[in-house]
Every structure is written in C-alpha cells, then in structure tokens.
Amino acid sequence: MEMNKTQGNGQNGSKCREENYVIKASGIVQRFGEREVLKGIDLAIRPGEIYGLLGPSGAGKTTLIRILTGQLKQTAGEVMLLGKDAGKMGKTVQRLGMMMDDSGLYERLSCYDNLKLFARIYGVMDNKIDEALERAGLRECKKRPVAKLSKGMKGRLSLARAILHEPEILFLDEPSCGLDPATAAQIHELIQKERQRGAAVFLTTHNMEEAYKMCDHVALLNEGKIVEYGEPKEICCKYNHQNQLHLRLYDGTCLCLANDKGAADTVRDYLASEMVETIHSTEPSLETVFMELTGRRLE
Fold first, then answer.
1. CA-CA 20 to 30 A from 85: which of 94, 173, 246, 255?
2. Distances in Å between the alpha carbon of 23 and those of 183, 222, 231?
3. Dihedral of the CA atoms 212, 215, 219, 220 (nearest 10)?
4. Residue 265, Cβ density class (10 Å: 0-12 exposed, 13-18 middle, ≥19 buried)
5. Sign, CA torsion 122/127/129/133
6. Dihedral through CA 232, CA 237, CA 238, CA 244, nearest 10?
7. pLDDT tens, residue by residue, 43-75
8. Residue 40, C-beta contacts closer than 8 angstroms, at least 6 positions apart
9. Which residues, other chains included, contact 146 with Cβ-Cβ below 8 Å and sequence gap of 6+?
10. Are 160 and 127 in contact (CB under 8 A)?
11. DSSP letter (8 states) at residue 176
12. What is the 8-class DSSP label of residue 191?
C-alpha cells in the first residue's frame, strides 16, 4: 500500500498547510460528569488517506467519532471538517458519509427502498442506487427486505448507503466487527475504492490486522490518549527490540540470527543450499506494540 509520508499529527510535530486537511482536530477533551473520556486528542487527515484509530472497547473511539461528525459537542478543543467547525456544518454535512455501530436500516423496507430514502435526502439520482447496490454486491437482493439479510449483507448495505452520495469524508465505526473473513474482505475492497476516488476515510477498529492492512496511518488510543501514531509498518519496526532473523530449516533446525550484515553470509549459504523452509524477521505486531505501551490487549 502506498503510504502518505507527509501526513502530520500534533503529537509528532510535523507541519503541513492547513488547506490540505479535510479533518483537523486539536486538544479534544470530552468529560461525562467526573469521567474524562478523551484527554487532549490531536489529529489531521488529508484527502485520499485512510486513518485508523486503534484501541480496545472503552478507549474512547466511538466518542471521538461522534465528536468529529458533529453528533456530540466536545468539552474542550477544536474540530474542523472541510474547513468548517464540526458543530456548525449546516449543508456541508451532506459531504460526509457515515457507517456507525448502529446500522439504522429500516428492517421492513427492501434494500433498494432503504437507499432510495437517503437518495432523496441527499438529492441523488435513482440510477446511483443501483450502482451502489452493484458495488456492494447486493444487486440480486435489491427487492429483499432488510430483515431477511444476513449480518454481513446488512453491513454491506450500510456501507452502500454511506457511499451513495460520493462523500468527501467517510466515517466508519468498526465496519467489519463480527463479520466472517470473506465478508470483511468485501467491505475492505469497497473502502479501498472510496480511497482511490479521493475520499478521506476515518476508521475506528480494535482489529490490528485490519488496521495494518488498510490504513496509511494509525493512532493507538488508550484511556482517552493517543499513545503512538504513524505508519503501521514504521510503528512495528520502531519497537523491534530483538531485531533478529528466525530461520527454520527443512531438517527441523531453528536458528536465530542478528538482523545485521554479519548474518548475510550465513543466510546466503543456507539459501544457496536450498535448506531454508521459512525465514522471518522479528518486528512486532500492532497488538504487541500496544501491549508494550499500555499493558493491555487491543481486543
């Protein structure tokens, strides 16, 4: 995946021109009574970027996405979407697409009629409904009531509704939660197509594999704070304290070598002798990094 290496975040000090951001948040704090759920969140996202907010249940992911979409007013801090205050979007909200944890689909209506309702709200032509259903792999189900859809099909319909009007920013809250791998892959394909179209995608998840595969940048959220930020691969390499190569030979022998030029001749000799069954480097997963930083698991 091509990474946007110029992306900035308030925590890493990188500076980019304000007009390049479609989402810009600084110093976001959210309190519910005495409980502080978000504790000074900074983020900045550009068009065509998939930004992943990664954290366990209860970390504050859904609260943040509700603030970014104007559904909840933050206690402190500033949020700008497409150059406007997120709490004062007006008609600009029609430039956003949302797929939240509560699908909001009408169970008695067909797939087509569910999308038709939103097409009327957004002023979208009816031919776009069939296109959205086709993209979501639901063309054959257009007349089927939502109540008769599987969970995976409902997820794809929710995403079809979110992208129906070709939004500039797409907010996805746990889009593949509880889905089987095949259905999750279909959801991921749709998201990538939106990214290729130029939409910015804000994705919340506790699925480390999804975040590593999909996102240009991820922020690790724990107890209301971003504890690490960057490109997934770079984060994993940053915490590669062992920095080793693990070789398994066909005779069952396992070798651990320092990942440096001193191991080059040894690895070359084993490869030349066609003795190597597998070879792996030891960089950790996002899950392992999160555990190192917080002492908690993501899931």
1. 173
2. 29, 21, 18
3. -20
4. exposed
5. negative
6. 160
7. 999 999 999 999 888 889 989 998 998 889 999
8. 27, 28, 29, 77, 225
9. 105, 106, 107, 108, 109, 110, 111, 114, 154, 157
10. no
11. T
12. H
Q: d(Cα 194, Cα 190) in Å, to the nearest integer?
A: 6
Supply the pTM of this predicted model. 0.81
Side chain identity at residue 165, one-letter code: H
Is the Cβ–Cβ distance between 231 and 216 less than 8 Å? yes
E-strand ranges in the chain read: 23-32, 35-45, 50-54, 76-81, 84-85, 96-99, 169-173, 200-205, 217-222, 225-230, 244-249, 254-258, 276-281
Q: 234-265, pLDDT tens digit by residue?
A: 999 999 887 888 889 999 999 888 888 888 88
Q: In what order do the strands lie in the sheet with 244-249?
A: 254-258, 244-249, 276-281
Residue 129 CB coordination number (10 Å): 22
Sign of the Cα torsion 30, 36, 40, 43 reads negative
Q: Which residue has the tokens 């509704």?
A: 161
Phi, psi dihedrals of residue 245, rounded to the nearest 5°? -115, 130
Name every residue whose Cβ is closer than 8 Å to that of residue 229 and which is 6 or more positions away in sequence: 9, 11, 12, 217, 218, 219, 220
- Structure letter (DSSP) for residue 295: S
DSSP code per residue over 94-113: GGEEEE-SS----TTSBHHH
d(CA 216, CA 181): 21
What band does 177 get if pLDDT is binned at 50, 70 and 90? confident
The single-letter code of the amino acid at 210 is: E
Residue 2: which of 170, 165, 217, 146 has the closest Cα?
217
DSSP state of 285: P
